[in-house]
Amino acid sequence: MSSSNTNEHSAWTPDSWKTKPIKQDVVYDDPEELSTVLSRITNMPPLVSAAEIERLRGQLKDVAEGRAFLLQGGDCAESFDYCNPTAIEDKLKVLLQMSLVLLWGLRQPIVRIARMAGQYAKPRSSPFETVDGKQIMSYRGDNVNSIDPAARRPDPQRLISAYFHSAATVNYVRMLLAAGFADLHRPDAWDLGHVRNPSIRREYQSIVNRLTDSLGFMDVIGATGQTAVSTVDLYTSHEALLLDYEQALTRPVPKATQTQTRRGT
């Protein structure tokens, strides 16, 4: 799209949101500190690559046209404390298990999107709440303030913590997938402890057994490629409730890079 085109879409910029009515805005005591924090985040490495974004766009096109199924799941609001191996692995297990059942039943590719690695903001209907008879600021998520009633002042430094917790979570997910965490040859390694209903657990185990038998047969006759069943694409998502933070995370991509990405190079 050329710069001479002045329609609404071409006029978009990362700060265009400031011309719109702003809801759920966070008011900081020190705007200068906020500006300093946002400038620092702007200069940090991006959390995802242009190639990953383009690949997801292509898969979402398949979803929209009925050639794939979208599975998205995760927490309403993440805590920084969720950035630990056990919590991350448990979420991946649930998402992978659900996608396995859907894959078997629908016979369609599954686009997996985890609501994690950034869901640190929490929408509230009121900026204030009453705790022990006192009116205090509402808890807005770990990237704004603390759930501790004594630490409800919005703190810009928490945005930097949000960035690093997101980066750590995304990198751990990538490491798990690269190490074979989603390998369909090892579905028995995915703990089913979260499935409380015995009948559902048995039904899922039956699907796992049939899938394992099928993979074993295909391996014997050389009909599978190891890469195709040893890993999956998995994307992360979060609600963009703090648009100044999202703006700081937005990166320009050179046109040459966009062209190469679309060609798959």
Number of helices: 8
Strand residue content: 5-15%
Radius of gyration: 22 Å
User: How confident overall, as mean pLDDT?
Assistant: 84
Largest sheet: 3 strands, parallel
Helix/sheet category: mainly alpha
Measure the end-to-end span: 22 Å
Low-confidence stretches: 1-6, 261-265
Shape: globular
Q: Percent helix among the residues?
A: 40-55%
Along the chain, the helix and strand elements come as HHEHEEEHHHEHH
Question: What keyword list fits this structure?
Answer:
disordered N terminus, 3-stranded parallel sheet, two-stranded antiparallel sheet, 43% helix, mainly alpha, 9% strand, 265 residues
Quick structural summary:
43% of the residues lie in helices and 9% in strands. The chain is mainly alpha-helical and 265 residues long.
Describe the structure.
The structure is a single chain. Strand 1, helix 3 (about 85-105) and strand 2 form a beta-alpha-beta unit. The chain has a three-stranded parallel beta sheet, sandwiched between helices. Strands 3-4 form a two-stranded antiparallel sheet. It is built from eight helices and five strands; from the N terminus they run H-H-E-H-E-E-E-H-H-H-E-H-H. Residues about 1-5 and about 260-265 have low confidence and may be disordered. The two termini are about 20 Å apart. Helices cover about 45% and strands about 10% of the residues. By secondary structure, it is mainly alpha-helical.
